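Honest question from a wet-lab person: if I give you the sequences of every part of a complex, can you actually get the arrangement of the whole thing, not just the pieces? Trying it with mine:
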Amino acid sequence: MAILNNPEPVVQANRIKTIDIIRGAAVLGILLMNIIGFGFNMDNLLGVMQGPRTTRDFYTMTTILSFFDGSMRGIFSMLFGAGMILFTLGKKEQPGGATIVELYYRRLLWLLLFGLFNAFVLLWDGDILYLYALCGMVLFVFRKTRIRWLFVLALACMCVLMVKKQNKWSATKDTRVAYLAALKAEKDSVKLTDEQEMAKAEWPQMEQEGKQPLDPVFASQNRQKMRSGYGSVFTHLQQRIAYLQTVDVYETYFWDALIMMFLGMALLRLGFFSNHLSTSTYLLWLLAGYGIGIPLGYFLLKNGFLLQFTDFVGYVDRYRVIPDLAYDVRRALIAVGHVSLLMLVYRSGIAAWFMQALANVGQMAFTNYLMQSILCTFLFFGYGFGWYDTLKLHQLYYVVGCIWLLQLIYSSIWLKYFRFGPFEWLWRSLTYWKMQPMRK
Amino acid sequence: MPTRYTRLLSVDAIRGIALLGMLLITVWEFGGFTPNQQAALQLEQSGSAYYLYALSSMLFEGKMRGLISLVFGVGIMLYMNRQNESSLAAAQELYIRRQLWLIVFGVVTAMVLLWPGDILFQLGIAGIFIFPFFRMNKTGLLTCAIIATLFYCGKLYWNYADDQRSLASYKAVLKVEEKIKKDSIDGHRKDSLAGLPADTIKIRDSTRKKNDTLTTLQQRDKAAWEGIAKREKYDSSKAAEKMEKQSIRKGYGEVWTYLVERSKRQEARWLYRTGIADLASLMLLGMALFAYGFFSSGYAKNRYLLFGLLGIIAGIAFSWLRLELLHEKVFDYEKYINKYSFPANQFFPLERLSLSFGYISLIAWFVRCNILKRLWPVFGAVGRMAFTNYLLQTIICVFFFYGFGAGYFGRLSIFQLCFFALEVWLIQIVFSILWLRFYDYGPAEWLWRRLTIISQLRQ
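Yes, you can. This is the full assembly:
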């Protein structure tokens, strides 16, 4: 509540540091999910899911999907929402210069362009900067909204997604029911109506798509294209990127990000990210977050995701309500758990040097996020080392480890000499349309 | 946004004209004058129906949306420049809230009133993108407007290049197919020359065919181009039209299911692929013209006339070229691609830019010379209530054409549709003038203002 009433007097250095630590952890953590997109052909992931359940790859996948899927992106989104409040409320306006509103929207326009750059030039189709810029344009007017209402807004966005998911699910269920009815009618040698004929034809196709959402021809084409030169990768990916930035953003990711951004704004106001709650509160959140989130995640993975790809018919027949409805609840809980854990470690003073290194990574999170695209596309795509689809799933995480190490080290070194990361500096300079001081 | 004291008459008049003119084009989609029927006219290129179509397309299609964007840009400049230092931040926040409410109204228009062609949503987003530009100087604004226009041309070329690529892979597949056929015939001949019995030849043929078929990817490439060619061609069976007629002449629920996907596509894909460049280029032009003093009688009268004539002549030349190219494209798209390295609508952004600019110059000239003095306040009234009138237009059309209203979708010819639009003009003009006699704002404007102000005060 302290921040709500009075944004200034919170101990500045302290507040920024814990947020930087969380941001650093999130930007590193995001690679845990993204690496699969950078280096792994999606049909292989299906292969791991459908294959034996004792391999290293299977364990890796289970761990990653139940602990980190969505939650790292969630923390990142939360901090984007929190950052919006810090940016807009923490600034003093220069007389005669641009107002905060202008600076904020200019900043977002540049972010949008950085997002397009990340997607269409660096060729990372999983880019989130573009999405964040769009969401940020909506967030601004909610910067002073009361905490209670922020939670309501988050919940409302969550409900939008739930309704969408359930609607789609009900349509699938209806097709299945109509199909079974048509089969039964046929068995009773009743002449089928046109509608029943259609229902009979529709389900098998849906079943095929549900079992094998990735077309094998496309998968093999994808493998070959991703290992070719820059031009081929670009033409191969451009339509997918455009699809992600239009249909997917519009239908899903806009809401997906807004849920977490509103939550993040509310949590910032509560002092959650700024180390303002008592140790027992963080402990409680850690218990609640992990204690509910992880079993829920494991259940969703085992009886939802895995079941879907191994026994699609059984999956459809079993659930009236799609289990995936709990997805956002789960990732919010786990995200809160992750943050609480970080805060507790920070408070205990264990591994203070590591926390400092994380804070450095977080202070240049924008650079580090873009650097991941630069490094990974170069490692995996054909115009670089071309490792795309040559490593096993668990081997990808050795690469992740190396990149983490690299980022922890260069961030610390860079910040010894400079005030901002290079891309932060560029972004700032573009926003204020004036070269910003760089050296310390 | 500007109060009545600072309103420039010609800006309102332009907005009013644009709003009414837009209906001449949107009534096609409302009333079921489908792209396929347009293709039929483009193919024929004669007859009075074609001339009416061509004239509307030349003078109005895209240009009225252009004028609305242009005036929107002028509105941003007027609003931001009117504030003093201390109130600017609050005014800007109010502006952002206005835009967000506009987006909400747009979603309602598209998803509840079921008008997929809605532009409120698009204007809301574009307005947020463009507003930080108001601080730029006039040269910067003009440069940005030109860049946005060129970017738009580039986008159109990009889309065309996809089709070119598709045709190229189609041709490659045809060659493979030919070779497979030839090999099979050659093999057959060889076999029969070798004196094999007919039965054996048959078996050999069948095994050969099994191995020598197109791969899945090749089949897809082939189907992809065939799909494009079919889409661009006039379909004499009119299957799609019949389907559309049936779907839209039904009750609200069925029409909703049919149109909601189209609305989504418009809001997600059109805005991304075309809309943002389409709207932003002319918003920026409007802002640049404002900065150059175009609306504050900075220029001599004759210069407006000159601008007007130049813009209109250039615009008509571009649109005439477009219609000629469209004819060839509908006639045979494959031939078109072989012949031209650019799409039929390549210069559409320039066409809109020149014509929109020509129109406002000419109107400014008229107003300055006191010609048609009585007419401008009439359009001005419509323009002052533009938001109300836009919603009203949509409601009238939806209830006249869709199945849950009078159900005239697909029953009127292009002449009748044009007449219908003129009737709606009349209603809107009379309504606007009467309403403004008693009130300062249109009803929808009032609601919009209230929502914006209340949401800001609630903070």
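Two things worth pointing out. Residues 378 and 430 of chain B are 9 Å apart (CA to CA). The two ends of chain B are 21 Å apart (CA to CA).
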